[in-house]
Amino acid sequence: MALTIQGKRVERSQKVAFMKVGETGTFNRMQGFTAFPPAKNATTYERTYVDEKGPRTDTVGMSESIEYTFDYYKGNPVHDAIVEITDKEKIGDEAIVEIMIVDLMDLASTTFPAKKRAYSVTPGTEGDGTDTYAYGGTFTSNGEVEIGTATTTDDWMTATFVPESSGETGA
User: Where are the extended beta strands (E) located within the chain?
Assistant: First the structure.
């Protein structure tokens, strides 16, 4: 008897990344990336109590990182911003970007779950390959994740982040 997996398969193209470029609240779609796998890099606290046979482990923090590679398209605002950080060897606050991930699984929906976070750009490689000039490196978390929703007016070429309401009222 063949077993079938319950649920609907999620395609990679349904989790879309955007990067804030400039001082506006608009995020530009991160196109041309050939690698973009997030890693959670959990920090754990492990201990063994004297009255128990095995250890206990708690997750006490996350330090997300995203290895990236993209084919460089001059004039693409996201690519140009990362290339400028890389080529000019920017450091500190000049090497921090904001990235938003939007879940576009249900295009019939009116709200789209999103999360955003600041990341430090850690350049790695450039010029790899013979067909196109590519850049690679790592985005490393530089702050807390913020949960919300995303909206668009141009078929997801750009998006705006709307923070989740805290539900608190002013005093």
Answer: 15-20, 26-29, 33-35, 38-39, 42-47, 56-62, 65-71, 96-103, 112-126, 134-141, 146-151, 158-163
- Name the DSSP letter for residue 82: H
Each residue's pLDDT tens digit, 113-166? 999 999 999 999 999 778 899 999 999 999 999 999 999 999 999 999 999 985
Rounded distance between C-alpha atoms, residue 129 and residue 119, angstroms: 26
Cα–Cα dist 134/148, whole Å: 32
Query: What global pTM score does this model have?
Result: 0.87
Torsion of CA 129, 135, 140, 143, to 10 degrees: -150
Core vs surface per residue 76-112: b (16+ CB within 10 A) or e: bebbebbbebbeeeeeeeebbbbbbbbbbeeeeeeeb
**How far is residue 55's CA from residue 49's CA, in Å, rounded to a whole number?**
7
Q: CA gyration radius for the chain?
A: 19
Q: Phi and psi of 67, rounded to 5°? A: -75, 135
Provide mean pLDDT across the span 70-75: 96
